[in-house]
Amino acid sequence: MKFIRLVLVVCVVALMAAAFQPTRAADALPEVVKMPEKIADGKDVTITISNLPPETDAVALKQWQDQVARFEKMYPNVTVKSVEYTYAPDTFAALVAGKQVPTLFRVYMTDPSKYIDAGVAADISKIFEANKLGDIFNKDIINLATKDGKVYGIPFQAYAMGLGYNIKMLEKAGFKAAPKTWDELRDMAKKLTDRDAGISGFSFINDGGNATGWHFTVLGYTFGASPADIIKAEGSDKYSAGFGEGAMVDALKFIKDLRWTDDVLPRDTLAWDTNGAQLATGKAAMVLMAGDQYNWIKGSFKEADMKDFGFAPLPEGPGGIASLVGGDMSMISAAATPEEQEAALYFQLWKQLDPTEIKSALDAQKANPDAVIGGPILPMYVGDYESSRVAFETPYYTLPAENYAPFLEAVTTGKVKLQVEPSPAGQDYYAAVGAAVSTILTDESADPAAILSDAAKSFQGTVLDHLAAKK
């Protein structure tokens, strides 16, 4: 398993300084893609692209349609058909089987390799290299969509897990900053918990489903686990479940202590949204979450003052400071004709990297009084291009970027070890450990080591042992 180590060449001081430069014109952003005079030699070509906003999001839909119209005006021979489809592994498998994969589609950042191996994604190396895009994209992210030196994807957005916290609640309790270690978090959470007021010191997803396994896994990374430890590659398409011992057991013991010894966790069942709502409504002082969830909080809780919320790296554990990275990768269908592939790839590059389009998108977003811009996401770019883009985008921010400085500093200086999801069968694995977490939270007598050992054995027999047979 190859890990992501997102090391940016831009130092934090330069990044923060650039972030407070005045607004700059679109032409101040570097032109990194040379758009062709003609696409497909002027021949008529039709492409389909995924992720069309729904009609219920009128602002985003109009922005999308206007952008498509501008591209079609530039290239009158290209017709762009948009579909609302949003990626999910199970539904995408049906599209592949039915030969209905859009020309341009997005997948989770952890999934490109399986579509490269299956021949679903097209090789885009020629155009990628011609525009020297390897110089502006972080190589470790690009490597997720690279095989045998060939590039198959363009990163669209990225996030990492961290610790959201209520600044005022921490200050009122006498804390000046987020906890640096898990032991410190335990002590702080005890003081911050107020059962009479319905306030928990710390919260994470606990509904026993896949998302619970997702949160538990990133906690396990801080205790020293790695993707390769959790699902071990044994060669010849054979894998073994390794999460029934070691760091993952230690992490589950920690959760048991939080629940039964410290009593600092919510007693309600929480999914992705209700966990985020704990922070947004003041029901939890500290919350394990992905940085991009601040976008959802601002859009869903109009009364919440976003200046009250900070974002920091997860506390340090025996395995150091770690996080789980995710996001979306744009890919081109290998089933499309070369002309369709060319049109689709240039559409994505133009949409994402053209200075005028970047400005147009930001202007359209800022015109919306409910605009959400500037959350603690992971930078996908590096070097001078990254610093220029941050400087340009900062005046558009509607979220308090300064509140996320602890997280950004830790990431950009390499203090945070960024890991990917365990694979293969990552979702099945999440389901297995999510159920284990639920057991620990509901049964005080449950033994973390025995629960995880049983889960690993079951996962081995019902999932991993069948993978080689499917090949």
Overview in brief:
Helix content is 43%, strand content 15%. The chain is an alpha/beta fold.
Can you offer a commentary on this structure?
There is one protein chain. The chain is α/β, with parallel strands linked by helices. The chain folds into two domains: 27-159 and 326-398, D-Maltodextrin-Binding Protein, domain 2 (3-Layer(aba) Sandwich); 160-324 and 418-470, D-Maltodextrin-Binding Protein, domain 2, CATH 3.40.190. The protein has 19 helices and 13 strands. Strands 3, 6, 7, 10, 11, 12 and 13 form a seven-stranded mixed beta sheet that branches. The chain has a two-stranded parallel sheet with strand order 1-2. A two-stranded antiparallel sheet has the order 4-5. The radius of gyration is 23 Å and the shape is globular. 42% of the residues are buried.
Mean pLDDT: 91
Distance between the termini: 19 Å
Number of domains: 2
CATH architecture type of the largest domain: 3-Layer(aba) Sandwich
Write the layout of secondary structure elements.
Blueprint lengths: L11 H7 L26 E5 L8 H17 L3 E5 L6 H9 L6 E5 L3 H6 L7 H6 L8 H4 L3 E2 L2 E2 L1 E14 H6 L9 H11 L7 E4 L6 H13 L4 H4 E5 L2 E4 L5 H15 L10 H9 L3 E7 L2 H8 L8 E4 L9 E11 L5 H16 L1 H12 L16 H11 L11 H8 L4 E3 L6 H17 L5 H23 L1
